[in-house]
């Protein structure tokens, strides 16, 4: 079982922004899946490793609390956010942009002023069953979290899976456009998964839920 190891280091934050226009709201699960894929996209980006322009910030972030904050934007707010360095990933209905981590007190003002609470979406249709061999991020059925909070937790789950995959498995996932599913586990499945040794996110409890809560389990077939 894996979890985030919190140490006393300068704190960086990775910001994710979800586009939520007045007349066009993305589906809940699509937002969760797109957020997770967006985190993987910045982890795999050449600018995030080696001598890349984001590499130092990524190392500083991953050496401390791997904190992610999800905000929402529309209209001119979204256009200003898009103008900042980052990566945009589009799902079926959801569009999420991720920005390289910065110290907690240095979040760009065009991101810092965006709403961070109150993002609650719904799924318009019944979700399809997951496929054999499909990476799945399983959400704890015993917790109540907003869409924004769950997006951050899905991002954590994808991140933990990335930590544990081999280079070859990372490359294969990237070539598959980081395909994955996010689903809420049944209580029985959650209990089984907790004993599986798969990566599990243990939240620091800054918002919404109690510190130490287990939120997401990353079930990637290469980790079984």
Automatic annotation (TrEMBL):
Give the matching InterPro entries. Answer: Pep_tRNA_hydro_II_dom_sf, PTH2
Q: Does the record bear Hydrolase in its keywords? A: yes
Any single Pfam family the record assigns to this protein = PTH2
Q: Which UniProt keywords apply?
A: Hydrolase
- What molecular function terms (GO) are annotated for this protein? hydrolase activity
What EC number(s) are associated with this protein in UniProt?
Answer: 3.1.1.29
Q: Does the keyword DNA damage apply?
A: no
Task: Output the Gene3D superfamilies linked to this UniProt entry.
Answer: Bit1
List the catalytic activities from the record.
an N-acyl-L-alpha-aminoacyl-tRNA + H2O = an N-acyl-L-amino acid + a tRNA + H(+)
What is this protein's name? peptidyl-tRNA hydrolase
Q: Which organism is it from?
A: Kribbella koreensis
């Amino acid at each position: 079982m894996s979890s985030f190891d919190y140490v006393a280091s300068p704190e960086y934050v990775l910001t994710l922004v979800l586009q939520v226009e007045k007349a066009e709201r993305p589906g809940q699960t699509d937002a969760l899946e797109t957020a997770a894929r967006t985190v993987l996209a910045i982890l795999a980006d050449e600018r995030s490793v080696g001598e890349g322009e984001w590499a130092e910030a990524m190392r500083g972030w991953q050496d401390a609390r791997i904190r992610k904050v999800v905000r929402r934007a529309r209209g001119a707010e979204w256009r200003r956010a898009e103008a900042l360095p980052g990566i945009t990933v589009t799902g079926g209905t959801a569009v999420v942009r991720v920005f390289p981590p910065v110290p907690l007190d240095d979040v760009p003002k065009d991101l810092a002023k965006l709403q961070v609470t109150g993002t609650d979406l719904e799924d318009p249709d019944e979700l399809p069953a997951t496929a054999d061999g499909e990476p799945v991020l399983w959400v704890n059925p015993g917790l109540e979290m907003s869409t924004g909070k769950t997006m951050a937790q899905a991002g954590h789950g994808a991140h933990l899976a990335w930590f544990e995959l081999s280079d070859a498995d990372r490359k294969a996932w990237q070539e598959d456009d980081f395909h994955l599913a996010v689903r809420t586990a049944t209580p029985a499945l959650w209990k089984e998964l907790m004993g599986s040794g798969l990566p599990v996110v243990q939240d620091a409890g800054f918002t919404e839920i109690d510190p130490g809560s287990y939120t997401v389990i990353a079930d990637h077939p290469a980790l079984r």
